[in-house]
Structures are given as structure tokens and as C-alpha cells.
Amino acid sequence: MTQPSAADLLALHAVRLLGFADTPAVARRFTLDPAATAELLLDAQAYGWVSHAQFADLRGWSLTESGRARDEALLADELDRTGARAVVRDVHAAFLPLNARLRQACTDWQLRPSPADRLTTNDHTDPAWDARVLADLAAVETGLTPLAERLAGVLARFAGYDERFGAALRRAAAGEARWVDGTDVDSCHRVWFELHEDLVATLGTGRHAEA
Tens of pLDDT along 115-138? Predict the structure, then answer.
């Protein structure tokens, strides 16, 4: 049976997953009440877990080192309390081969080697090349779906990764190239990166430990 997460955990964890985001974006990540989220973030700031910064027209929250430790402590407690650790650990192990395939697909979307230069930028004028990459991403989506279902089956906060990935892939297949690897939209790569961060944060490991 899927378990909900506490609002304070969700607000702090959303900041980690998003990297840098304003209060409305943090609230939207887990469909939290915006006013309550603002209060939770101010509380977290008082504890030194998050910091607020502004760069020109951009303003938002980011996690501090102590906030990162606090987030992982809350996640570990949640895993133990819900008994979800084994499922998340098994999904992470199954995720890694898909991760390698996703990374290669994104590289192939960005680069199309030529005889003269292995690092030639993919200008998306070769439909066969792009179709192969999109087929690889579709295979990744097929592998992701049961993993996402297993995660959401134990912790509600994991819900939606497969739907978001599929939506991005459909837009890419319809000709919107940036939905494969764009950083300013909820692209395949962005969704995948967030899921990866969610898994390693939840398990309290680092990406370096996967090498």
C-alpha cells in the first residue's frame, strides 16, 4: 500500500530535486499548498537547511549541506518506517542499466559523428539517426514504467515519473527536439536526472558509488 510523505519532507526534498526553484515551483513539485510551503521554507531557512538567493530576475531556494543531510535523514526514516527500503534498493539496481542507455541516447541526440569529426553536432537533418535515438528512448520508457509503478506503490511521492517522461518523449517525437534534453522544459533528460537524484537521495548514496 502506497504511503504519503510528510509536508516538511516534501518541501525540503523538492528543493533538492529541483536544484534551484522559487516557492511556487517547490509547491507544485508535490502539489503542496503554496502558503504552507512558504512557511515550511522559511522554517527550513531558520534551521539553515535552505538558502534564498536572487540573480537578476531569478530568485529561489537551494539546499545547504546541512539541508542535504537533513533531507537524507528524513528520507531514511521514511524508508524504515514504511518498510520501502528493499523496493527502492531493487528498483535502483534495475534503473542503472536503463540509465546507461538513456545517457547514450542523449549523447546521440546531441552528437552525430562524421568521418572527419567524432564530435560533430547533431543538426537533426538525418531522420533515420533521430528515429533510432527516439526508438532507444521509447525502450527506456518501456523499462521505466514498471519501475515507476513499483516505487509509487510504496511511496506516493514517487508517482508521475513515467507519465512525465512519456509526455516529453511524445513531444520530441512530434518534432520538438528540445524535449529530449532541454534544461528549460520538463524534458526526458530532466525527468530522468530528477529520478536518479531521487533514488540516490532516498537511499543515502551518491552517484559516484554507482561507478
Answer: 777 878 888 999 999 999 999 999
